[in-house]
Amino acid sequence: MLYYFGFVFTLFSGISLAASPVKFLQDTVDLEPVEIRAEQLQKYAYGQWVRTLDKAQLAQMSGMSLGEALQQNTGLFVRQYGPGMLASVSMRGTSAGHNALFWNGLPVNSPSLGQADYSIFSLSGFDQVSVHYGSSGALYGTDAIGGAIHLSNSPSFEKGHETTINTRLGSFGRWDQELSHRYGGDAFSFKTRVYRNFAANRFPYRDWASAGTPERVQDHAEVTQTGWAQDLAVKLNPEQSIEASFWLNEINREIQPLLGSPERDQQLDWNIRGVVDYYRRGEKASWNMKAGLVRDFMKFNQEENQTLLALLGAEVDWEHSAKWQSRTGIRLTHIDGKLASYRQEEQRLELYQATNYKPLPQLGFSLQVRQLIHDGERVPFTPGLGASWGFFENQNHEWELTANLSRSFKVPTLNDRYWVPSGNPDLLPEQSWSREAGLNHSLSHSGIHIKNRLAYFHMAVDQWIIWLPKGTIWTPENVRKVVNQGLEYFFESEWERGNWKWGLDLEYAFTRPVIQYDEQVQNIGKRLPYVPEHKVQLQLDAGNGPLSLFIRGQQTGERYVTTDNRSSLPAFTLWGAGVHYDFKFSTWLMGNMGLDAHNIFDQAYQILRLRPMPGRNFQFNINLVI
Predict the structure, then answer these.
(1) Which of 130, 140, 287, 609 lies at 20 to 30 Å from 472 by C-alpha?
(2) What pLDDT, on the 0 to 100 scale, is given for residue 38?
């Protein structure tokens, strides 16, 4: 299998590259069109790249969590503590807290932990996922050192009524259900979704922590999730509109224990998120005013923690001319944390500005700046500069060079500063300088369409916060410096042969983060733990009328378990396949059904040490649209 990956990569790396890999062969159930919001994210990000999983792709993965979707459909490395357990994303070798997550423009990383649990974000709560690769603190603020992920909802006017019923049955006691109804009129639209996802997770595994590695059945990893998501939009007139989204989510989990551990932990997460946007769109200027609220409650065994984030923001986007564009904004954030060992509030005021200049139609520059005032103290000024040059174009080919230089930062978390008795209120923000260069190429000839992107990045993260023992107490300090560099390659193609449509996508990431300074001398020069040096993702699609099939493979390289690199987990390769069929019984009843197989070679593997993952498993889904 490894040789096959290498052969495909070598073959296609010499052909051409991609600007936005999007799956071509999806089920053909009619779905309302949505605004591609990645275009707005990309607008002031010359030299960087934003890719999108749109509504059609997400519809095929109903019932999954955001972590599962990113693991199976992108080249990102998702650190999973087990199926349905805590999941975090590593982008370009950074830690879980170095990636910003937004829902409709609201930051939803936990203020106390500084990261997001991607397993609690059901795909039922949003229409689109956009991944911004690379340092982007000037655009998005704190946490976006490695990149940012955006979840968004879009209104659908003038589409009438539609009801969708989805159900998904899977191995090891999985049963997911979703009911949604939407209406789109001339000036009003809404969508209501309710869902329940259940997984018993009673899967067999080899117990490597016991003598003889006996086979056991996981008996403490049950997950139950329920939620309600509501979207509303009103057109006040052709230039003005109000959009609102509300999301209530609850997930109750038996925490899968480490191999050999007798622990039986239980965790309850309860999340409420709401956002209201006012838009005014003019010929030269567009205004947006935003108000949002995020409340997270977590009960781990008997210990309770809750945080509240309230946000007010406004920005204006100017189209000065064909050559000049600018965006100016202000954002005020209030955070209130009531944790098991402390209670603390903080205020954040952010001012930001982004400007585009296009002296030529094929040449563009973007400059972004941001200043954060954190509890009355200025966080280091954050600039970003990018460029894009389309240096060749003819009937069949397009070539583009991109470059970017940017600074990002991460504000210390509430736990870092205030946890009793070991918090350190004098911590400095983590900072990074990042640069990258990319080459994009697209080819369209004789019914074959190919897009590619090859990018090199170099990143240095300073003032990295780690917790160190001080006598009998562990406390956080700014002591680590990490330099990370790597390559990213994205390939996308489609073609037709007879009645069949074909598509092939390939992603490859080479990532090498090296510790340049650490309190522990033996760690210097070593790679960060749990960052695979190589990650490959491959998917082949085929479609003929209502029938579509896919084969998917991914290889994750060796991961070191400790910072001294003395122990590691072996590389693993997973394969999956699926078949889907669209049907239409009448003008008012249609849908699709599908059968997917995961880990079809029954690979025994661990993403994180002593946390087994399921073997071969199957999932059947049926979606009805009325």
Answers:
(1) 609
(2) 54
Domain that holds residue 41: 2-211+218-260+291-625
Phi first, then psi: what are they for 38, rounded to 5°?
-60, -25
Distance separating alpha carbons of residues 513 and 525, to the nearest angstrom? 10
**How much is the mean pLDDT over the chain?**
91
Residue 549: which residues within 8 A CB-CB, separation 6 or more?
541, 542, 543, 577, 578, 579, 580
Its pTM stands at 0.92
In a domain, 269, yes or no: no
Question: Poorest-confidence range of 57-71, 346-360, 608-622?
Answer: 57-71
Residue 283 included in any domain: no
Q: Which residues contact 319 (CB under 8 A, 6 or more apart)?
A: 283, 284, 285, 325
Chain centroid to CA 111: 18
**Which string of DSSP letters, residue by residue, matches 207-233?**
-TTSTT--EEE--S--EEEEEEEEEEE
Number of domains in the chain: 1
pLDDT per position as a tens digit, 469-521: 877 888 999 999 999 999 999 999 999 999 999 999 999 999 999 999 998 89
Please give the full DSSP string across 547-559, using - where no structure is assigned: EEEEEEEEEE--E
Q: What is the CA radius of gyration of the chain?
A: 24
Question: Does position 265 have pLDDT exceeding 70, yes or no?
Answer: yes
Map 485-530 to HEC letters: EEEEEEEEEEEEECCEEEEEEEEEEEEEEEEEECCCHHHCCCECCC
Classify residue 271: in a domain, yes or no. Answer: no
From the CB of residue 14, how many other CB atoms can be counted at a distance below 10 Å? 7
Does a structural domain hold residue 151?
Answer: yes
DSSP3 helix / strand / coil % (the chain, rounded to 5) = 10, 60, 30
Res. 39: pLDDT tops 90:
no
Q: For residues 493 and 625, what is the distance between their CA atoms, to the nearest angstrom?
A: 30
In eight-state DSSP terms, residue 144 is T
Residues 284, 306: Cα–Cα separation, whole Å? 43
